[in-house]
Amino acid sequence: MQMPADLAPVWTSLRTAVTATVITLVLGVAAARWRLRGHARTWELLDALLLLPLVLPPTVVGFFLLLLLGKHGPLGQLLMKLGVVVVFSWPATVIAASVVAFPLMYVTARGALEQLDPQLLQAARTLGASEWRVFWRVAVPLAWPGIVAGVILSFARALGEFGATLMLAGNIPGKTETLPVAIFFAIESGQTRQAALWVAIVMVISFAVLAALAVWTRRQRQIMALSQGRGAAPGGKF
Amino acid sequence: MELRVEIEKRLPEFTLELAFEAGAEPLGILGASGSGKTLTLRSIAGLESPTRGKIILNGRVLFDSSAGVNLPSRARRVGLVFQNYALFPHLTVAENIAFGIAHLPKTEQREIIDVQLKRAHIEGLQSRYLRELSGGQQQRVALARALATSPQVLLLDEPFSALDTHLRSQVEREFRETLASFTGVILFVSHNLEEVYRICNNLLVLSGGTMAAFGRKEEVFQRPPNMAAAQVTGCKNFSRARAVGQHCIEASDWGVKLQVEQDIPEPVRHVGIRAHYIRFADAPAGLSTAPESNRFPCWLAAVSESPFRTTLYLKLNAPPANPADYHLQAEATKDVGSALKGQSFPANVQLDPAQLFLLSD
Prior knowledge:
The structure holds 2 protein chains of 2 kinds. Chain A is mainly alpha-helical.
């Protein structure tokens, strides 16, 4: 019996989920912006590709990641020449978590940006703002509620990632062993109490995430209700 | 100060084609919804690209299809006030006004904000958010935000349409003061005749994407060059017409011969008169009728009353068969209208030769 409890998977998981969330935030918002500036028809195929990790079984995602980043994969070989081996390293857990969490971030960010009143962006342009400024000073602040929802969902998805992580990063304690993977192997080897502890920790984190989402949504609704009260229909046009 | 626009914008179900110039005096763009008013402003602001043509502001080429020039909005130095204001809801009033002058030093920004707040009479509101402002206040902030960047042209897209009626006249009066001190070109888009007439000296009438009229407002209202311009400027009474003498025409839809003051154009197809120029010969004192020409017996077909005016639907020379059987719409003040309603018909109506206008289309 290992006591005090082995908390290494907790830290690995949190580190992985936080890093993956930051990566998906940057990439997801960037992809959403890129997508919305392009022309819809040519983008449908790429859209499908960006959303694929959401619908594929994680093991299938893991399979493709191995093909790409493995010893014989094109990217894997390139990295090997630079002295980097991704497979079975901590970065592999981040890559797996990022890939499966990315579509959630992308979809919510795109939805939030799409719903912006285009006149607000146009007003910013006529006021002399560069596209960069329009994006950071107008689009992102106004789409922020949606983006934060995407961050919370991505974090939850990254934290729960199992299949792709196991295939690409394996199960190296203290290095690539995340909570979901650790729970699986603890159960498999009969360490029920250890597994139960980890499950409890996952439950706490998950509830905290859900609570954060609920609080956030309620606050945003209140703000929206306030701004729609007068802002959306100036002077009581309706 | 000069804006020259000569553009064509082809859309699947609509083509906008127009050429005009605007100088120091405000130019009103009048047209029904869907006539291309807003599209014109958006093209000048760089939010739409015309299919071909040129837009030149004070000698600067903003757009030239043949030279491949299409300046982005941010480089055009235009101030656009959107119909619904498009204020930034996440910024305060002061931050909204400062949005377009962020490149200036802080102290200079502060000065410009103060000037604008003072001019718009919203000094106390600078740290408020959009949701804490009334419609009239939002409108003032929108204009202040556009003016803060000292644009060379101010584009106003129905700036009063979202305001309650009781606010409109006050806001409009302040607006006129502000516009009087603005030194750039002003284009004012509206579908409200009276508003445009009060604010602008020159008038461009748009109808279905083409220019129906362009000139001094008095000229356009007095002698609309075509049917579309006459209709957009509010004329309700038209009849087919043909010349029967040097200053005499036959108005076949009304079944009368009319003396006209203007020279008869060739060809002449229609004659028109505005509803408020129709005079009643035996109307009560105050509505005098001098000349004898163009006087006809008329019967009342229907009446429509608004709070302060009465519209009378009249049939000439014969009693109407039903309320929809009428030749002319006449507009009268409430008291004149009710006096007429009570009197016996036929009454005498007079179509002033000086107010009849002839159209070639």
